[in-house]
Amino acid sequence: MIELTVLGAGPAYTARPGAVGAAYLLQHGSDAIVLDLGQGAFTNLAGAIEPSLLRGIAISHLHPDHFIDLVSLRHYLRWDFDPSRRVRVVGPSALEARLDALHDQPGFAAASLDIEGLAGRDHVAMASFDLEARLVRHTDESYGFRVTAGDGPGLVYSGDCGDADTLRPLIHPGDTLLSEASYGIDHVAPGSEHLNAYDVGRLAAATGAGRVLVTHLLMGHDRDATASAARELAGVEVDVVDPGDRFSI
Ligand SMILES: [Zn+2]
Questions:
Q1: CATH 3.60.15.10 given to domain 3-242
Q2: Would you call the peptide bond into 153 cis, given omega within 30 degrees of 0 as the criterion?
Q3: Centre of ligand 1 from the C-alpha of residue 80, in Å
Q4: Over the stretch 168-216, which tens digit does the pLDDT of each residue have?
Q5: What is the pTM (predicted TM-score) of this model?
């Protein structure tokens, strides 16, 4: 069984109190990994576990609300321990260069992060977890993930996605679908490459997902209406998640 703790469920900006960027802690026995680490999420991570003990982090794509708190983690590992501790990170191929460029400092990321590109890799083992990665439509290199531990059902995480069909191959019947529905019950802004509640509900129904967790709701979109619309189409339990929420998968 995988225990999911929502550390951050926010989009790029929001007025919602306490909201921080995307970050999801997964625990199986004593193993812990994190999917995404967006703006402000390091604080919630450090409140939940000792960050230096993470067995891996998977970054879905290079938008700051999904990766920028790797900077906080890097500083923590580099300066709070002597010698520095290290954490493994997998993600888009440009991740390490992006972090270095942000600081105009070659080797900035490598000082305490072991970063690996996901291009061409379908599966990555992280301690007792298996991470399946698939390209989804959003940026040039955006991933959706399916995480399993042992024979149990999977957790499928959409990252950010502009075409629900690109997530379908990841979802097995009975899986928990943790999906963005950035635009709630409203039309998705052309060119933004996101989903709404109807996209997510139809995706869950078509793939037999056992449960839906909606996340990444943009500012001003109705939470209850979003859950209701997705629930009606999916035919399974649907919740809009917040930091601190926990689920057993
Ligand atoms: Zn994005």
A1: yes
A2: no
A3: 30
A4: 999 999 999 999 999 999 999 999 999 999 999 999 999 999 999 999 9
A5: 0.97
DSSP 52: G
Cα–Cα distance, 199 to 204 (Å, whole number)? 9
Residues 6+ apart with CB under 8 A from 175: 146, 153, 154, 155, 156, 207, 209, 210
Distance 229 CA to ligand 1 centre (A): 23
Question: Ligand 1: distance of its center to the CA of 222 in Å?
Answer: 20
Structure tokens that stand for 152 in this block:
């149990």
Q: How would you class 201 by CB atoms within 10 Å of its CB: exposed for 0-12, middle for 13-18, buried for 19 or more?
A: buried
Residue type, 81: F
Tokens of 129: 């977890």
CA distance 181 to 40: 21
